[in-house]
Design brief:
The structure is a single chain. The protein is of the alpha+beta class and 598 residues long. It has a domain of 197 residues: Tetratricopeptide repeat domain (Serine Threonine Protein Phosphatase 5, Tetratricopeptide repeat, Alpha Horseshoe), CATH 1.25.40.10. Helices cover 40% and strands 10% of the residues. The protein is built from 15 helices and 16 strands. Strands 1-2-3-4 form a four-stranded antiparallel β-sheet, with no helix packed on it. A three-stranded antiparallel β-sheet has the order 5-13-12, with no helix packed on it. Strand 7 and strand 8 form a beta hairpin. Helix 2 packs across helix 3, helix 9 packs antiparallel against helix 10 and helix 14 runs antiparallel to helix 15. The longest helix has 34 residues. Bound molecules: S-adenosylmethionine.
Length: 598
């Protein structure tokens, strides 16, 4: 594969997400349980299956809502988690439990020119077509534009008005949260207050009554922007949207922020936000049994995209509750718990959070005696933890704590610089990674894993036109470390693993600028060169294909990423076949010339 082919499969400003439901726009938002879902007929349920992983639940009447839920799933309610989705049948690994098109989705500002605002497909080679009125949103073609017109005609005017009033060109576009809430409100106006569309939205969980002051402030700020965006000049104008006061708008915003999903590209880059009341029924676990993905499977018609799929990561038995992760599960238990409390207003009691005695690969260092075992990170409660294998005590806990501190601060700084000043950001990641590794942190430990991922992204963003062997090898080594870190914390088939393996395989398949070993003998260094490298690329891509088939749903053929991987595999098999044939020909020629014995 040429370097240009690799680059064309990547997009500027792409960073990977860990497939969470978090709306990254409004992090400091809290939630509560004040609005009882519409559940008038609560029926006690017989004992759930052994693996239900959850508290006792009850069937609930859906009052005509959520008609896109198949008969193999049901909505139940429990005291601890509220409403949730439960399996009524057995699902095997890689089964798609549910596929829905979100009620509303918008792209973030930096992606408007690169993805279609209706179907969220990436721009084709001939580019997208821009709305000639607002000049802000782009579409694949006239059919996507027509399909979006009922909503966009309202949005189009609001976007133009906003731009005219904007104090500076940088503020000429409202945030994606404002644009998404705008679409929700126009949807409520369009479908009517008693429509299923509106009732499903209003049925989503709100935490208005227990908003902390900081969240209340951010909601109020967002409410002001929404009012401005909609061109509302008096409270009476809120009535068509089913709102009788500014407080109702804050409530709607609370509901929105608790239940919003990140819209991602097929390769998991966050590209916008979306709302699906059906998908929002799924509760959280840090050890999830499903993932939500947008595979963009090639046979799906554009009119149904962006299609969200809920895919089984493990076997799910009848009666088991379905759990997705709302947060990045590569970070420590404390960081996950904090985000879940701050943003979603609950304390997670999943198996990963309650397993406190067990060594967490996200927070571990290698044994000081190098016995092959691991030690937990030192903490205030346990300043000198021991190796789980040989029981040796960590010798320099302060150095580890210092490295963690420097790494966490540095990661924050590097992330804030990654688009503004990528070379400075890369300098930071290059300096920090050796500090982390010399403190014996494992590749799965936070913040080393996050720094490695960021470093890889930055190296890929800055791939030079005259790619050197050294540069390419450094990206490959970083991608391999990232994969090693992921493999300890994510289950086989998790889409993040599949995508990371695909990335590594594709990098290994890039034509080497100056290969140093063309023989077919094992090489001690990594990455190998020549034919050994191509063989490793093929093995990695075959593994990626297997994992993508799980994480994106077996029926989806690994989604768009799986399709790209299959194409590279075919090309590599051809190259390897040609190489073997070439060797055979050389041997035969040499035999014919009597240079080697027959
Ligand atoms: C996206 S909603 C999920 C559906 C929600 N249970 C409902 O009744 O509509 C997110 C909210 O569900 C609740 N929730 C989700 N997972 C939970 C868990 N593992 N434990 C306790 N509450 C949970 C929290 O209140 C959270 O803010």
């Amino acid at each position: 594969m040429s370097f240009a082919q690799l680059q064309s499969s990547r997009r500027a400003k792409e960073t990977k997400s860990f497939v969470s439901t978090t709306n990254t726009q409004e992090k400091n938002v809290d939630i509560s349980t004040d609005s009882e879902p519409q559940t008038s007929h609560i029926v006690p349920r017989s004992r759930s299956a052994d693996r239900s992983q959850g508290p006792t639940s009850h069937s609930i009447s859906l009052l005509g809502m959520y008609q896109n839920i198949p008969d193999t799933l049901e909505v139940r309610q429990s005291e601890e988690t509220g409403r949730g989705l439960y399996a009524k049948t057995q699902y095997n690994v890689g089964s798609v439990l549910l596929s829905v098109r979100p009620q509303v989705s918008v792209l973030s500002g930096s992606h408007l020119e690169h993805y279609c605002s209706f179907c969220a497909s990436a721009a084709p080679p001939h580019g997208l077509k821009r709305c000639t009125k607002c000049r802000k949103v782009w579409y694949c073609n006239a059919s996507c534009q027509n399909a979006d017109w009922a909503m966009h005609k309202l949005e189009c005017n609001a976007l133009q008005r906003w731009e005219v009033d904007a104090p500076s060109p940088e503020l000429a576009l409202p945030s994606d949260a404002v644009r998404c809430i705008g679409r929700v409100l126009w949807g409520i106006q369009k479908f009517g207050l008693e429509s299923i569309w509106t009732r499903e939205f209003n049925g989503m969980q709100s935490h208005r009554s227990s908003l902390p002051p900081s969240a209340f402030e951010s909601h109020t700020y967002l409410a002001h922007s929404v009012v401005r965006y909609l061109g509302i000049s008096s409270p009476t104008e809120l009535a068509p949207f089913g709102l009788s006061s500014a407080g109702d708008l804050v409530d709607l915003i609370s509901r929105f922020t608790t239940n919003t999903f990140t819209l991602t590209s097929p390769s998991l880059s966050p590209i916008g936000v979306c709302v699906s009341p059906t998908m929002a029924l799924v509760n959280h676990s840090c050890d999830p049994n499903v993932v939500m993905v947008f595979p963009h499977a090639s046979d799906a018609p554009t009119t149904t995209e962006p299609l969200m799929h809920l895919v089984a990561l493990r076997e799910i038995l009848p009666g088991e509750q379905v759990y997705v992760s709302y947060v990045d599960i590569s970070v420590s238990r404390e960081a996950r718990q904090k985000e879940l409390k701050d943003v979603y207003n609950f304390t997670c009691r999943c198996s990963a959070c309650s397993n406190q005695g067990k060594l967490d690969p996200r927070a571990s260092v290698y044994c000081p005696k190098s016995c092959g075992g691991l030690c937990p990170l030192p903490t205030e409660e346990n300043e000198s933890p021991r190796c789980g294998k040989c029981n040796s005590v960590i010798t320099s806990p302060d150095a580890i704590l210092d490295a963690l501190h420097v790494g966490s601060e540095g990661l924050e700084k590097a992330m804030s610089l990654q688009f503004k000043d990528p070379s400075k950001s890369r300098q930071l990641t290059s300096n920090l990674i050796p500090i982390m590794t010399s403190a014996a942190l494992t590749p799965s430990t936070h913040p080393l894993l996050a720094l490695t991922r960021l470093h890889m992204e930055l190296l890929l963003l800055a791939l030079p036109d005259n790619l050197t062997q050294e540069y390419l090898d450094e990206v490959i080594r970083t991608a391999a470390k990232y994969n090693a870190g992921l493999s300890n914390i994510l289950p086989v088939g998790h889409p993040v693993r599949g995508v990371a393996l695909a990335e590594l395989g594709k990098l290994l398949a890039v034509d080497e600028p100056s290969p140093h070993d063309l023989t077919d003998t094992p090489q001690p260094h990594f990455p190998p060169s020549g034919i050994q490298r191509l063989k490793l690329a093929l093995q990695t891509l075959v593994r990626a294909r297997e994992e993508l088939y799980i994480g994106y749903g077996k029926g989806n053929g690994g989604g768009q990423v799986g399709k790209e991987v299959r194409e590279v595999i075919v090309r590599l098999e051809g190259e390897l076949g040609a190489w073997s044939q070439g060797i055979k020909n050389v041997i035969e020629d040499a035999r014919a010339a009597g240079q080697i014995s027959k």
